[in-house]
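Trying the structure run again after the queue cleared.
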Amino acid sequence: MPSWLAVAKNEYRLMLSGKVTRRLRKPLPILLVSAVITMAAVLITASHSLSLELRLKESLESMLALPLKLDPFILLLITDTSFVWRMGSLAGVFAFLIPIFAAIGRQLEEAEVVSKDVVLSSPLKPVHVLIGEFMVNLLMLPVILLLSTLFFIPLALIFYLSLQTIVLIFATLILASLTGIWIAVIVSTYLFTREYRSKAKSALKALLGVLGVAMGIGILVLSMSTTPSSFWFLPPVWVANTIHFAVTQSNVAVVKINFAYFFIPLQPDGWTSFTLLAVLFTLSFLLGAACSSKIKFTSVFEGREETSIIKGENLFYKAFRKALPYPLNIMVVSQLKEFTRRTDNIARFVSVIMLPLVILLMSRMMRSDVTSGGDSLLVLSSLSSFYFVLVGVMLPMMVIPYVFIDSKDLLWTIKKTPKGIRLMIYSMVIETLFLSVPLSAVLALLFHLSIGSIGGNPALLLAVMFFMVLVSTAITTGVYASRPVFKEKGFGHFVNFVITLIVTGIIVSAMLILLVTPWVLNLIVAAPLLQAASWLPQPTSIVISQTLTYLITNVSPSNITLQMAGAAV
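Done. Tokens:
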């Protein structure tokens, strides 16, 4: 048996090593390929029988009594073609990036549990591992094609998709997927041949998680706007341009806003984009062949002793020790060190900044793009308001649960110390506020820059964010203190998360509603006064009642940011 085939079989066995997936090892490839062929046939059949373009052509032929040819200009009578480009760009993101994230993530996960002594001592060559990894990752190709074809179902119901169109679309997706798979194989093989420390593994996982969040936000961007021509160098843009040309037979995207048409030329055009994909595919394989000689199966720690030096605390922790009373300062500093020691905690906590940054970028793009209507900006503002409320509630939930997970070995000692539980709760609150308040201030500033004058006073925006963080911190601390969970993947986290989200949502929603419609709060305050005024003499009672009624209904400061946030809640 060839060495690369042995590597491929071993990787395939590890990939499907679960109790359920183990039974699917033999039929799974056949089922996936059959599903792709069936999906392609369904697209062609639906397009040839149900497409709006074909029905419009038949209607015009019956009206004019003349045979007509399917022409891209008929699309002007149907709809704009910008959503074809958007669907193609989403498919391009899936085809190019999912193989990279899946292969590297699987390799990092296996690096923790699989011993590489056998592999490192075997007579394998780098090219054997590269080919074996590439062959087993080809299993993702039909999965990606199936996911991508879901975006083309609306296209098949509107546009006439010929067999040549389906072939060009699938060829484009296959080129993008193979390129992503090969790049992932090179990186994952390099990771496979190296032994990393746990901190380096955590950093790589955190980076992969942040990139995954970036991919999700990129999908959101591509689904809501048209990527400008300055992004012509991105492979998903090449996929989108090729698919647009295959579907519409045109290199010009037609954008319809009300009764106005905008014609946007694709850069690069369809065939040039397909050529660039083929060139990238070829160059990636040549680069992999050149890098295979640089990959060696050697361990980093082989024949080397390491010594660790305990460094003194920096000024940051020293300031905490001096600012807080003893022994609370010791507890807070130890929890901060434990939280910041894990890179994935920091990456998870900071990743919430990515969506406001993308929203800021999208708002600038939409304001400078004449083809972006007011509806897109309204949707963007609503999304910003909803995320603004959500992130203020979620920030403490990213800190407090991991305090219990990281301190589970010390909890018994803390419990037996005088006032240990109380000190731990106080330290959790201080740690959470210290980490959440600066980040919430940055988020409030980003949201203000994104929605501009719509958001109103930035100081009020900042105050609302601080209020939500404070309420969420108190409730999350109370829930986890009463129901501690010490397993990172335990079901108790889900239960605590639901309880915290419901209670926090009710309190924050009630406060926001009172701020949006403050006459309710005025009524609560004035109700006892109205009742007391009824016992006064008649002229005085009428005057006081009318005055209180006027104050209830008219003293109502309003702010559009709070109104949008209340509507989002």
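The chain has 25 helices and two strands. Worth checking whether this holds up in the mutant runs.
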